[in-house]
Amino acid sequence: MRRMPPLNLPTLRALAGVPAPEASFESLRGFGRREILRGGAALAAFALLSRTPVARASAWPAAADSPFTLGVASGDPDATSVVLWTRLAPDPLAGGGMGPTPVPVRWEVATDPAMNDVVRSGEEIASAEDAHSVHATVQGLVPDRWYWYRFIVNGVASPIGRTRTFPDPRVVAQRLRFALTSCQDWQAGLYTAWRDISEQDLDCVLHVGDYIYEGGISRQAIRQHHGGEIFTLEEYRNRHALYRSDPWLQRAHALFPFIVTWDDHEVDNNYANDVQEQNAPREAFLERRANGYRAYYEHMPLRREAKPVGPDMNLYRFFDFGRLARLSVLDTRQFRTDQPCGDLLRVPCAGVFDPSATMTGAEQERWLLRNLLLSRARWNVIAQQVMMMQMNYAAGISADQQLFIMDVWDGYFEARRRILEWIARYRIRNTIVLAGDIHSAWAGDLKPDFDRPESPIVGSEFVCTSVSSGFQTDLVGLVTLGIPGNPHIKYFNGLQRGYTLCDVTPQAWTSHFRVASTTSDVFAPVTTARSFVVQHGVPGLVPA
After folding, report:
1. How far apart are the C-alpha atoms of 409 and 388, rounded to whole Å?
2. Helix, strand, coil content of the chain in percent (nearest 5)
3. What is the pLDDT of residues 182-197, one digit of tens each?
4. Which domains does the chain have, with CATH numbers?
5. pLDDT tens, 310-324?
């Protein structure tokens, strides 16, 4: 999500065609405090964590002279397999430091944290072509159980990670608990949310985009990027390595399997398919996109089938947590048509209602609809990047006007309507949509036609706030004014950073909006601001 120019009521009323007296909203504050987790703070963190039960499940990040400086991770679990990841990088912020030579890497999977009962092992070749990253798919595991794993190179062992398999698809599991996260701008704040996530009892983590940010150095930042805006493959690799160097993010990766998808900042802000934000030549942008996609694959625990070919990468896929939940993970960047009427807050133009406009592309849309139709799961989850529920920002100014952000589903009316009408027509039960991107927390209900009160509720949506990226605070007042005119929206919080903790049982889906008191202190308290529940078979969310 790009920061928009400062907004005030005269500007907004002019956009909506409504005269009004002058008023303005508070501007976005910058961050300016010192970076933590260096020197003594890091040692204090280690001492604190070594006393907690969860600390014994995984080692602290590797020493700086180890090839495992970026830690270990796992992801894309199913009932009998999981992907294990690491990247050999003794000099992570300067290309990795491994040179051109391929390196054999042994991996081991055990049923105990001491790695005494090794049940699977193998060897992968870490090559310079893939930045010496390793993506080992471990097969033949037992459903619904925890495992521990490590990598070994030339007698040097990595930190020990923990992962799990999902329940058998034929079994109605009794509980799923995961963290929904997005938008972790390195420069905007410390990863207080990741510290809290690593203290939770979770089955997995779902990251829905903006894992890195591509921009240059902000001099007022709490901690800074190394270098300017990134374009080349080496620059994208170094930026991923910088973000991966955070010990709390490493810790969360080592504790839980991740399911990931990207949004825009993994390549370029608000890009759409082959259209760059600044309208660079198509071929130049596709080269940049290829670099961004390649570095993303190299740093994520993804299966080999996801490895990109040039500027193309297959990232949409689904996961079954037994028969409790089916999680359809979308890619709403690579295949979308360009945003209509620009990509920021606009009065809707004709392009908003164009039936050929698409967020997912025709093939992915058909895949999603078929996936929903064939699902036997209790909860049908659509995990994707941008907010799906309608938000008319003019609703608090004029009952007759509309203002929408064009980069979200509000800019693609017909594509959204097709999906929500399909859910209504085929009675897809217990539909939950998850999103991020907008740096604020939202909860609301989904309807095929948001402008008709009698339109049925066909699902509910939870939008997580950002891990660290700031929301534009001059929009907070505008949203607050507009919520009564958007009655399907039940909750908004644009002032606090954090994540969403989701508790799922056969009877109910509960989402807890976890927020940090500050992101300038990684040890700051994280509390639950609000919780909402959707009961099985009862459309609509209510306060928990």
Report:
1. 5
2. 25, 25, 50
3. 999 999 999 999 999 9
4. 1-30+317-517 (3.60.21.70)
5. 999 999 999 999 999
